[in-house]
Amino acid sequence: MNRFWEALSGICSRTIQHPESQVNRLCITPDKKFLAAAGRHHVRLYDIKSSNPNVIMNFEGHTNNITGVAFHCEGKWMVTSSEDCTVRVWDTRSGQIQRSYTHDHPVNDVVIHPNQGELVSADRGGVIMIWDLGDNKCTHQLIPEDDVSISSVSIASDGSLLAAGNNKGDVYMWRMFQSQETTTLSPCRVFNAHKTYLTRLLLSPDIKLLATCSADHTVRIWRIDMNEENLELVPELPKQAGSEPIAQYPGGPASPADSTDSVDDGPSFQARQGRSRSSSNLTSSSHPSRPSTSASNAPLDTFKPVNAVIANRHPLPLETILESHQRWVWDCAFSADSAYLVTVCSDHYARLWEVASATIIRQYNGHHRGAVCVALNDYSSQT
Description:
Keywords: Repeat, WD repeat. This is WD repeat-containing protein wat1. It is a single chain. Helix content is 1%, strand content 45%. With 383 residues, it is an all-beta fold. It has a single domain, classed as Methylamine Dehydrogenase, Chain H (7 Propeller). The longest helix is centred in the last third of the chain and has 4 residues, at 306-309.
C-alpha cells in the first residue's frame, strides 16, 4: 500500500492499494504529476493529484522483483533494475523497452547520471557497471570488494561524485570527471559507515552531506567538503608486474536479447547537462518482507581498489546520527534544500528529520507493516 502524507500536519491524505505485490521502490516523475511504484515484475504509474486510484500506465517485462527506478529529467524515459539480473530503459510514452542490459548477478540499484546519457547500476556480486546510453555499451566496471553485495549507489547532482555502499556497511566514493569523449573515475574515499548491512545511501542535493541507512537502526549523516584536499586519499590500484592489464571483459559479447535498439520515434539517449531536480510529495510504502554482463564486447575500465586502500580507510566527518528508529531503516530522501531528511523503517514509521538538530519534526504512523521506501516532493505543502 502507498500512503500520501501532508508534511506539516502528518495527516494521511490518500492511500493507493497495490495488492499484487510488495512495493520495493517509489519515484516521482520530474513534472511532479505521477508516482511510479516498483513491485514484483512491474512498475505502475499513478496520477498524484487525482483521486483516481487506477493505474495510468503499467510497465511489464521484468521476471523478478524490481529494485530500482529513476526518470529522465524531462520524463521521456525511465530506467529500472531487477533481481532478474537486468537493467531496462523504458519509453514512458509507449511503455516499451528501449534498452536491456545484463549483469551476472541480481541488480540491487540503478541511478541516472545528471548528464542523462549514462546509467550506474550495482549488483549482489559486488560489481558496479556504468552504461553509456548513446553508445549502448558498458564503459566501466567497478569492483570494490569481490562477492560483497553493493546495496545502493548515488551520484552527486552535478555528476562530480559517485558513492556506493555494501552489505558490510562500507562506503566507497569516486570522483567523476567528464569530457566530451569519456567519463573518468578516480577513487577518493573508503570507510566503514555501519557495522552491519547498509541498506540505502544518498548524496544530498547540495553535495554537502551523505546519508547512510542501516540494519543497525540508525541513519548516519556524513559531511562532505569538495574542496578538502584529503578527500583525495585513495590511489587507484597499480598494475602488478607481469599481470594482465586492468581493462577486461566482464562477461563477453552480449546476445541480441541483452541489447535492444530504440524505436524510430523513441527517446534519444544523448548526454546533456543535467538539471537539478527538487522533490515535494512524500509517499511511503510498506510490504511484508524484503529480499536480503554487459551490452558490448569492448574492453572495460575495471577498478578493484579494495586491496590497495584497505589500510587507508579514512571516514568522512560524522555530522550526526538519527537514532530513534526501532528496526532496520530501509530508505531516505532529502528535501531540495538538504536541510531535512525523510526516513522509513521496519518499525512501521516514516519520520521527517531536521538534519542540523537531529530532531524529529513529524512522525507518520499508519502503516500496518514495515515501511521500506519513500519518495519526497517538497515544492508544495503536500507530502
